[in-house]
Amino acid sequence: MAFFYAKAGGIDPGFYGWAVVLEYHKAHDDRKKLYFRPVTPTNHLKMYPWWNREAQDIANEVRGPMAQGTIWRVSDEQWRRIRKGITAWVGGRGDEMSSAATSGI
User: Fold this and answer.
1) Would you state the pLDDT for residue 81?
2) Is 60 part of any domain?
3) Which of 57, 58, 61, 96 is such that its CA lies 20 to 30 A from the CA of 67?
4) Does position 78 have pLDDT exceeding 70, yes or no?
5) pLDDT of 31-44, one tens digit each?
């Protein structure tokens, strides 16, 4: 699971977290329950969210025409691109800018 905050109204959009899904099931009243544990590199991403042209392109592709939703399913190919982008960003192989306010995106 990846956590993304859109630019709408904010100055620091991007991918902020990474988590492992522990449980997913329907509750007795048909509500769906999702339990997850944030993992590395979430603490780094909270301070320096992944936000560059690639992050913006992937986010737009995943969200499609319904950009104001809250949860989206991603394809295996999209997930690999997100993982690769976050890894490059955290490893210092991404853009130096981490803020939309300074990167102009």
Assistant:
1) 96
2) yes
3) 96
4) yes
5) 888 899 999 999 99
